[in-house]
Write a structure and sequence with these properties.
Layout lengths: L1 E3 L5 H13 L3 E3 H5 L6 E4 L6 E6 L7 H8 L1 E4 L6 E7 L6 H11 L4 E8 L13 H23 L5 E3 L6 H15 L6 E3 L8 H5 L5 E4 L1 E4 L8 H5 L5 E3 L16 H4 L7
This protein binds flavin mononucleotide.
């Protein structure tokens, strides 16, 4: 089973690829967390793989991923093969170390970990990658995935193919906690008159913090996945002043429907 978290589809693209190759099921962490529980229980089959696939946020795992792991109970766990695949625009610092600490506290052993460079969606920090850079990153990622899939299929242990970048220790231990302290401030999100009230921002919000009364309003819980800004079909949403003139990003192989936290009722 693969537990995934995604804002704009890169991590879902990776999770789907690994799940298909290794013939296992996909579970959305945000969809599971939307049903608030004391613990999240799953029963493993013998030799079943357990994957955690998510984007890096400020050189650490998204807070929701760690919150989920802290409440995770895997029944029939018998040293099953556990791996992590972390998508990033450039590098991931000591994300794997943080993840490993949380898994260990649940008695779970991380056997391998990978970072996979994908187009950046962090439009608060800078513009999106140019089209040709996006295409190159996705093409290279799909080659990397062939290699990662073989490692996972063979259950190879102690393989950590990670781009930590420079100053990984400081970035993860100093900047990441500061980031997590300030992200729940949603006051900088605003919406312009292009908004049609379509509700896509609400349905893709990982924290389910957005309410719509003709236009979206943000509650207090936010992990800054930026799905709302990036996936708005009419570019009506911005954050502060810097994002207005920047591009928007969605993984081209993932549909908006796949990114909805609570699927539409048909
Ligand atoms: C809040 C936030 C913080 C980010 N921090 C980093 C970072 O520290 N290093 C990095 O290389 N990319 C960073 N990124 C880029 C994303 O990790 C990357 O684009 C990822 O593939 C997005 O995955 P998704 O489409 O599954 O949401 C950040 C993105 C967001 C939204």
């Amino acid at each position: 089973m693969i537990f995934y978290f995604t804002g704009t589809g890169n991590s879902l693209y990776v999770a789907k690829n690994i799940a298909q190759y290794n013939d296992t099921e996909l579970i959305s962490i945000s969809s599971e967390l939307s049903d608030s529980k004391e613990f999240y229980n799953y029963t493993l089959k013998s030799n079943e793989i357990v994957g955690f696939v998510f984007p890096v946020y400020a050189w650490g795992p998204p807070k929701m991923v760690l919150d989920f792991i802290d409440k995770l109970k895997l029944s029939s766990y018998n040293a099953n093969y556990i791996f992590a695949a972390v998508t990033c625009g450039a590098n991931i610092g000591n994300t794997i170390k943080l993840l490993d600490e949380h898994l260990s506290s649940r008695g779970l052993l991380l056997k391998s970990g990978f970072s996979i460079i994908m187009p950046s969606n962090y439009i608060i920090g800078g513009d999106i990658d140019k089209d040709e850079v996006q295409e190159k990153k996705i093409a290279e990622a799909s080659e990397t995935l062939k290699h990662i899939n073989e490692i996972i299929k063979r259950r190879k242990e102690d393989i950590f193919e990670i781009d930590k970048g420079y100053f990984s220790g400081v970035l993860t231990s100093v900047i990441n906690p500061l980031f997590n302290k300030h992200i729940s401030n949603t006051k900088k999100f605003h919406v312009n008159d292009n908004c049609t009230g379509c509700g896509i921002c609400k349905s893709v919000c990982n924290c389910q913090t957005i309410t719509i009364d003709r236009k979206p309003a943000w509650g207090e819980m936010c992990v800054q996945c930026l799905a709302c800004i990036n996936l708005c079909p009419v570019k009506a949403i911005s954050y502060g002043k810097s994002t207005q003139n920047r591009g928007r990003y969605k993984n081209p192989y993932i549909s908006i429907d796949e990114l909805k936290i609570i699927p539409d009722e048909n």
